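In this supplementary section we document a worked example of the pipeline. Step one takes a protein sequence of length 349 as its only input; no multiple sequence alignment statistics are reported here. Step two produces a three-dimensional model, which step three serialises into structure tokens for compact storage. The input and output of this example are shown verbatim.
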Amino acid sequence: MEPSRETIFYSSIRSFFKTFFVILGIFCALIPIFLISISTSKEKDFGIKNIVSYLPNDSGDKNILPMSSPVILRLNIEGIIGKDHLTQAAIKSQLIESRDGVLKNNRVKGIFIHINTPGGGVTDSDGIYRLLLEYKKLYNVPIYAYVDGLCASGGMYVASSCDKIYSSPTSIVGSVGVIFGPFFNIKDTLNKIGILTETLTQGKDKDTFSPFKKWSENEGEMIEPIIQYMYNRFISIVSAARPKLTIDKLKNEYGAHVFNAQKACEIGYTDGWDVEYNSALRELVKEANIKPDEKYQLVELKPKRAWFNELIKGASNLMKGKITHEIQIGPEKADNFSFIYDPSEYSVK
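The serialised model returned by step three reads:
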């Protein structure tokens, strides 16, 4: 019996230490998260939201130069406008911080916008456009855009702030239009399976486009003037920035269609359609009055520890035993009123 008691004893000890070291391991793994979260909160107190990232210039040089060297700031308009870090607030923080820290003393001589977006929310598209115009006017710097993929709808809205727009030969450009919806009505389906719904509202048409009621013949009529206003503003901005794209042509000929790179250039959406990234960058450097023999720095400002915030968010849900997901019908939109290109609705010309 003695050997059996020792086996049970030692087995218990082993189990204890296994549990102890597992808990210790989890604790040690959480220490960096705790420290970084404290660091992040301190940085927020100082208002620093981005870090400077050094990119290769048109000569492939990304060595850090003296603080007296001129700088070209690259802004990335990539993804859906209004989502993640492509918001008016995020771009504003980058523009503000481009005049501070290692970039202070008017080092930024031009902005190079890299575009690959289907567009997005009306508010953020318009906000980013206005921020860029204000920056250009305030600091007297040229702004060039390079499209490498897609520049549609809200992307074209933002690009209208630029002095020049160039694209790669395989890019798609256009889609000057506004979309609101889609909306679905499931009232009849619910009634068929015996489900009744009721919504309490105050105010005429408060439940416009509710999927749980029968729509009237004039459903959404009050929203049409808003969409019309946004559309008229959009085409006016594009036409003012791209003189060949008259309001008449945008309304009656081109509509919300998208075009291949060559066609888009021919009708006036861009200034060059078979352009390499470095060639477009060199054109901006020249316009920024940076001398041919003068070294310059190409930089971008990236949100601090964006990946870490997502990690903490994900870890928090897992620790709570909760995993969430979304089911979405139709194209992803940043808000209900959108300057966004939905490939299922239009053809490329």
